[in-house]
Amino acid sequence: MIGIHKDKRQTFKKAGGFILFLLVYLILTGCGMGNEENHVNKKVSVEAVDHKEEPEMTGYIVAIDHDRLLIETGTNDSSSLEEGDVWIFLPEDMSVKEFQKGDEVGFWTTGQLETSDPMSGKAIKIIKLDS
Fold it and tell me: Reduced to 3 states, what is the DSSP secondary structure of residue 118?
C-alpha cells in the first residue's frame, strides 16, 4: 500500500513539473510573438504610407512640446476619428524645430490613438501642407 501512494506522488510531481514548464513556455513564446507581430505591422504601415496620396488626418498645430505636436484636426477619412485635438509624437527622424504654431500639417499614424483628452498617438509620417 505504501508503495502505491509513493508512485502516485511521483506521478503528480512529474505532471506538476510538466504543467509548470508548459505554462512558462507559453507565456514566454506568446509575449515574443506579439512583439514581432507589432514590428511587422508597423513596417507594413510605413510602406503603405509612402503609396498613399492623402494624409490620414490633417490639422493646424496649436502647441509644440518636446517631442510632440498638439494638432487641431479634421480628418480626410470618413471612417476615421471625429474632429478634435490630438497630441502626435513625432517619428524619430523628425524634430519639433521643423514646425511652428499655426502650420497646417498632414499626418499618418500607427493606427493606435489613445482615447485620452486630448487623444494621443505616434505619427509614422508628418508633412507640412501648402496654405
Answer: coil
In this predicted structure, the answer to whether residue 37 has a pLDDT above a threshold of 70 is no
Q: DSSP states of 73-96 as a string?
A: EEES-TTSPPSEEEEEEPPTT--G
CA 76 from chain centre, in angstroms, equals 21
pTM of the model: 0.57
For the four alpha carbons of 53, 59, 62 and 66, in that order, the dihedral sign comes to negative
Q: Which one, of 34, 33, 40, 36, lies nearest residue 110 by Cα?
A: 40
Report how many helices (DSSP H) and strands (DSSP E) the chain contains, helices first. Answer: 1, 5
Q: How far apart are CA 17 and CA 34, in angstroms?
A: 26
Per residue in 58-112, pLDDT (tens digit) is 999 999 999 999 999 865 554 444 568 999 999 999 999 999 999 999 998 888 8
